[in-house]
C-alpha cells in the first residue's frame, strides 16, 4: 500500500499521480465560471470516474453529474449521487432494465434520445413499470455522431415525446467534440458559438410550439466557456477540464502547468548510439491518442515534464520509445512524470490515483468506475 508522506519519486512505476492542488483549482474554475454566468454545472465524470472527485464537484456547486454509460451511473448512484444524466442513447431492453433499477433507487435520472424508434422502445419498456423516465433531446452541433439536427428535427422529436405516457422531456443538449480537431482558438470560438446556438435555437423553436424546455445544456472542455455565454443556455457540462491534458494544452485551451494528472515513469533503458531511451510506459499506460477527432495537436505520446529534449516517438504495449534531441541528463532507472495526451482513456487503465501535494504523497483514491463501459 502506498504510504503517505513519501516523495512520489520513491514510488514504483508506472503510477497514476494526481496533484490535489491543481485538481482543486480546476474544480473551482469550472464552478466559478458557472456561478458568474448564472449557469448550472453538470460535469462529465467519464474523465475521472471517481465518486470522490464527483462529490468534490458537487460540493463546489454542481447540480448533478453527467456519465457516458449506465455502468458509470450505477457506480455513482451506489456512492449516493442521485442527479445523473446519461449522455448516451439507450434502447436495448437489458439496458433499460438497469435504468429501471436506478429509478427504483430514487435516482433523478435523465437519458439522451435522438430518434423515434428509440422513443417507442423506451416508452414500451417503461410501460411495465410505475416510473416515468426523463429524457433529453441530443442535437447535432457539428460532431456528426449522435443527435437530431437542430431546429425542426428537434421540435418533431419533442412533439413525439409529449405523446408518450412514460417519457417526459427535461432538456436539450449537445456535445461539440469536433472542437478537438480545431486548428486554432478562433475556430474553437466559432464552434462554441454554433454549439450554443444549436441548443438555444432548438429550445426556442420547441417553446414556440408550446413545449417548455427547462434545461439547455452544452459541453466540451474547449468550448464550454464560449457556448455557455450564448443567450438561452443555462447549463454546462465540461469533463476533461477537471484535469486537462497535453491535447488541451496543444489546442491552446490551457497551460501545460495546469494539468493535474501525470504518469510516473522510469527509464528502463538508454541507448546513446541510437539517441533513444525506453520508458516503462507503453500503450497499456499512455494509450495511442494523439488528438481526438482528427487533430494531432501534440508531439509524441505524452509530455515528459521538465525534459523538452525527450519526445516519446512510439509505443508498444509495455515500452515507450523516446528520442533524445541533443543531450539528456536522464539515466537508467531515473524517474519522470508524463502528462498524458488524453487523460480520459489513461484513467480508465488504472485502479487508483496516488494523490500528492507538491510531490509528497497524501492519499490514495479508488477509480471505482474504471472499466465501466456498458
From TrEMBL:
<feature type="domain" description="D-serine dehydratase-like">
    <location>
        <begin position="260"/>
        <end position="357"/>
    </location>
</feature>
<dbReference type="GO" id="GO:0008721">
    <property type="term" value="F:D-serine ammonia-lyase activity"/>
</dbReference>
<dbReference type="Pfam" id="PF01168">
    <property type="entry name" value="Ala_racemase_N"/>
</dbReference>
<dbReference type="InterPro" id="IPR029066">
    <property type="entry name" value="PLP-binding_barrel"/>
</dbReference>
<dbReference type="GO" id="GO:0036088">
    <property type="term" value="P:D-serine catabolic process"/>
</dbReference>
<comment type="similarity">
    <text>Belongs to the DSD1 family.</text>
</comment>
<dbReference type="InterPro" id="IPR042208">
    <property type="entry name" value="D-ser_dehydrat-like_sf"/>
</dbReference>
<keyword id="KW-0456">Lyase</keyword>
<dbReference type="Pfam" id="PF14031">
    <property type="entry name" value="D-ser_dehydrat"/>
</dbReference>
<dbReference type="InterPro" id="IPR026956">
    <property type="entry name" value="D-ser_dehydrat-like_dom"/>
</dbReference>
<dbReference type="InterPro" id="IPR051466">
    <property type="entry name" value="D-amino_acid_metab_enzyme"/>
</dbReference>
<dbReference type="InterPro" id="IPR001608">
    <property type="entry name" value="Ala_racemase_N"/>
</dbReference>
<protein>
    <submittedName>
        <fullName>D-serine deaminase-like pyridoxal phosphate-dependent protein</fullName>
    </submittedName>
</protein>
